[in-house]
Design a protein that fits this description.
Strand order of the largest sheet: 2-8-7-6-5-3-4
Helix content: 25-40%
Strand content: 5-15%
């Protein structure tokens, strides 16, 4: 009997890496307040075009003609508009913003380079940096209040990190940074790629896109998706906006057909029904006000700033309350193990009716 052939080792950076994973199984049929998703689903226009999707097109590679232009038109006609025109070559298409983050770091990060960010923040930045052998420098938010550590970031930029990742508003703390400050940071660090992850900006309105001139700020890249607002998280589609040269370099890290045809079709439909998305965002903001008022009246310990989520510190074990809520059909996310957030739960904000259901259960469990 011949000896078994051992499996080959991967690169040292990969061998040291712990895979990034999220507990996504077993969530169907429950009230999903754990991953900051749209809690009601996409526009009926999206459902209609997916039902009518031609079967023969499943066997054809996807085409993207017109999608970049549709995204630009959607931005131009938004209340904030665009002070400086965008061209199609300044828009990158990705299989979700996670893929865009991976592509950015793959394109610009190398062994020994520094990725600068804040802490705590979105958990996928760190493993993407580790894959490339980068050094992660995570500056803690200022307490109390999880304020943005502006001066510390300015100081760190003087050491020329390769990439600055800004989640704005920050997940999970909701920390917000004004567009003016984002542009100041980019101007102060011309040798650093400044990446602004704006997945939650619709719920707070802190976007840098309406004012940025990528001709002047060629080192700035902005990430957006249709997951949190338009309800396309399951189809995976994200966008990057920046100087055409930067977008080109990042897109070299992806396959030619990474975004599938169903996602493209759904994106066109979602962009054409912006009023549906606007109404959902307005409902989330209304529900957020309701929940903040109830938490304040009850004397609960919580933090709410930007985004469609907030943090609550139960008086009993967060993990226990998380499980008890799950038993009642409500999913929330324990922040156990995250710096500054031990003992807290992150609760996504859905509709007013959904948050009333959450509050009735949570109040009874944590009374």
């Amino acid at each position: 009997m011949t000896a078994a052939t051992p499996s080959p080792l991967a690169r040292p950076e990969v061998e040291r890496l712990r895979g990034y994973s999220a507990p996504l199984e077993g969530r169907r049929g429950l009230l999903r307040l754990d991953f900051n998703e749209n809690t009601v689903g996409p526009s009926p226009a999206v459902a209609e075009v997916l039902r009518d999707f031609p079967v023969d097109q499943i066997a054809v590679y996807p085409e993207y003609d017109g999608l970049r232009e549709a995204v630009i038109s959607n931005l131009q006609t938004s209340p904030a508009g665009l002070a400086h025109p965008l061209l199609p070559q300044q828009v990158g298409l990705f299989n979700g913003v996670d893929a865009a983050i991976h592509a950015v770091i793959h394109a610009y990060g190398g062994p020994g380079d520094t990725l600068l960010t804040t802490s705590p923040t979105f958990g996928y930045y760190a493993p993407c940096a580790a894959m490339q052998g980068m050094v992660l420098q995570a500056v803690p938010h200022a307490l109390p209040g999880f304020r943005f550590p502006l001066q510390q970031i300015r100081d760190a930029l003087e050491r020329r990190p390769r990439i600055l990742m800004l989640c704005n508003p920050n997940n999970p703390t909701g920390t917000r940074l004004s567009a003016e400050h984002v542009l100041q940071l980019a101007s102060s660090a011309p040798n650093t790629l400044v990446v602004v992850d704006e997945l939650y900006e619709a719920f707070t309105g802190d976007s840098v896109l309406p004012t940025v001139d990528f001709g002047r700020h060629g080192n700035l890249l902005v990430l957006r998706s249709l997951a949190k607002t338009s309800g396309l998280a399951g189809l995976r589609i994200g966008f990057a906006f920046g100087h055409a040269d930067v977008v080109d370099r990042v897109c070299r890290m992806t396959g030619p057909y990474d975004v599938n045809s169903l996602a493209v079709t759904a994106a066109f439909a979602a962009l054409s029904d912006q009023s549906y998305t606007d109404n959902y965002v307005a409902e989330v903001i209304r529900a957020r006000r309701y929940l903040v008022n109830e938490l304040t009246q009850s004397g609960a310990v919580f933090h709410c700033d930007g985004g469609n989520y907030l943090l609550i510190w139960p008086s009993s074990s967060a993990q226990q309350v998380e499980q008890q809520l799950r038993d009642e059909g409500i999913l929330v996310r324990s922040m156990a193990g995250k710096p500054q957030l031990e003992g807290s739960l992150r609760v996504s904000i859905g509709t007013l009716t959904q948050m009333q259901k959450f509050w009735a259960s949570y109040r009874q469990l944590d009374s």
